[in-house]
Amino acid sequence: MRIKRIALQNFRNIEQLELRPGEGINLIHGENAQGKTNLIEAVWLFSGMKSFRGARESEMVRFGQENARLTVEFFSEGRDQSASLTLGGKRGVWVNEIKRDAVSDLCGVLPAVVFSPVHLSLVKDGPSERRRFLDTAIGQLLPSYNSALSYYQKALFQRNALLRDVQYHSELLDTLEIWDQNLVRAGAQVMLLRQRYIARIGQAAKEVYEGISKGREEMNVFYQCSVEGYDPDWDLPKLRGELEKALRAHRAEDIRQGVTSVGIHRDDLAITLGGLSARLYGSQGQQRSCVLALKLAECGIIEESMGKVPVILLDDVMSELDHSRRDYLLNRIGERQVFITCCEEDIFHVLQSGRSFLIENGAIKGGEA
Ligand SMILES: Nc1ncnc2c1ncn2[C@@H]1O[C@H](COP(=O)(O)OP(=O)(O)OP(=O)(O)O)[C@@H](O)[C@H]1O
């Protein structure tokens, strides 16, 4: 899959922009606050997901304007296609000029993987960021994961409410058993799918990281399941049995505290470099490389599972990466179409092939637009 043309109107600081990217690497460079991230964000919206900056639609429309209009022309599934989005007052989504109901209808049309500084929270922050990463990545591939997760979350909400009541109404203990069974059924399913996905992405990320770091240190990713004694070889019946046992073992404590202390909502993804926690001991460059490895590994899995090559969007990824890591990124990430933003021009000498574009005040001013 390859984007052939991007046209933007009244999107953030971009009044009017047209770009014809190349098939491989496309470097978007310029000074701070010129519109580099805005361009990446605009392309990302075609993945059918929300802004990776957490922006509301209205915030993305150029100040003083009513609507933003975004169009991409791309080659996919053996033919030229197009997609358009109107944000703001008159919202709309079109694929090949046919109107669709919602932005989420774009899911799978133009798959993309994005890395931006906000994604560093994947390594730096607490477990909820990593669970969000897993849930989004697995959910994109398997709708059954989303159903099990949402069933679990509803059951968890009910169980927590009940735990608080049971303190005063012991006759409700029987009802607790029902919610436990619901949690076990959905929870074990989610655990199994997380286990499989982590084994897959862990192996792929390890290989990418080896390339990025020239084998200087080894990256490993493990499933930190909240159930005590967890073993990655557990099958579905075993996962069910162990989760049930854990819920029972924690029941008294849960009633005292009024919350469920074990289950998939307490899982984590451990990321290590040379056996040490990347969060606690990794340098800025190493942490950046870890997230990048995970993102590129995710990209490979989407490719295998969906049969479509995602577009890679790398926003401000170059800072804090040394020469050899930049070289790997610019020249060795394969045949995919990549958009990379950066401030410094001096990285261009590393680029062996590809195109570069200068962006100034929301407009393409130089390069091969
Ligand atoms: N809705 C909007 N309307 C007009 N301008 C906006 C809107 N939203 C954001 N901007 C402006 O867009 C400008 C460029 O933002 P962007 O994040 O793309 O910068 P950048 O080139 O990636 O910079 P940096 O290198 O600092 O990351 C900012 O100055 C911001 O104020």
Automatic annotation (TrEMBL):
GO cellular component: cytoplasm
Record-level GO BP terms: DNA replication; DNA synthesis involved in DNA repair; double-strand break repair; SOS response
Domain of life the protein comes from: Bacteria
UniProt keywords, alphabetically: ATP-binding, Cytoplasm, DNA damage, DNA repair, DNA replication, DNA-binding, Nucleotide-binding, SOS response
Major location (coarse): cytoplasm
The RecF/RecN/SMC N-terminal domain, residue ranges: 3-351
Record GO terms (molecular function): ATP binding; single-stranded DNA binding
Binding site for ATP: 30-37
Localization terms from the record: Cytoplasm
InterPro entries given in the database record: DNA-binding_RecF (IPR001238), DNA-binding_RecF_CS (IPR018078), P-loop_NTPase (IPR027417), RecF/RecN/SMC_N (IPR003395), RecF_2 (IPR042174)
Listed Pfam families: SMC_N (PF02463)
Protein purpose: The RecF protein is involved in DNA metabolism; it is required for DNA replication and normal SOS inducibility. RecF binds preferentially to single-stranded, linear DNA. It also seems to bind ATP.
Similarity-based family: Belongs to the RecF family.
UniProt protein name: DNA replication and repair protein RecF
Species: Harryflintia acetispora
Gene name of the record: recF
